[in-house]
Amino acid sequence: MTTLDRRRFLALAGSGLAAAAAAACGDGGDSETASVNPTISPSQAARVSPTARVEATADAGAAGLRWFGQSMFLLTSPGGTRILLDPYNNIGYPIPPAAETQATAATISHEHGDHNNGALVGSGEVIKGLTADGWAQVDKRVGDVRIYVVQAFHDNGGGAQRGRNAIFVYETAGLKIAHLGDLGHRLSDDQLRAIGGSDVVMVPVGGNFTVGAPEATEVVAQLKPKLVFPMHYKTPAVNLQIATVDAFLEGKTVQRVGSTNLRLSKATLPAQTTVSVLEYA
User: What domains are defined for the chain?
Assistant: First the structure.
């Protein structure tokens, strides 16, 4: 595994100096590093720029993404709209301070306890993807973010085992970002058309309750995004009967960011589909 000194990696990646980032490979001096899978070149790794903290940005072409663990992310638009995705309850990951999760809105893919803690959003709007007997009809703008729902299931039996699941799609900063919730199956042609393509995908990979590594790989191949964030996998923080991320990473172009945060920009998306592994909060 090739490593970059994290401070140098962040600085070089942010400035787009791929050659300098490549020259920095193997340098020591900091125990906190960003690691790059040998299947991705240093120049490719430099094109996706992690930062210490991503909030609202003056750059209209960029958004911020933070991973807290499990399936919970915070998406921050260029205009400062904050969307909290699938906030968890007490499942092992720490509940963040209120100031870190208060947002303009929260989206909830389904009503399982590791996805539906809408209280974390504070006074923001809670947008649920499911109703008591079906899917919510969601297609709306929240600030400078368009949000819509695509109907899906939590299992590969039409919901017979674990019920319905809502895929949320977010459009901001010129990006289309799909959070697949607890998807339990390959996508149909109708679902692919409804999603309408994607630049960035958050996909569950831990199996048992959702798609596992093989099925998640197939779903990624269906959607053809440039950037993939694995989620809903086993880490030291949770004692769930799900697999680690390792099997999903095999044979893929992988970037280990070494941060909870990432700056997303249409202009700096990788040329080929890249799996970006964030640290959890």
Answer: 1-46 (no CATH), 50-277 (3.60.15.10)
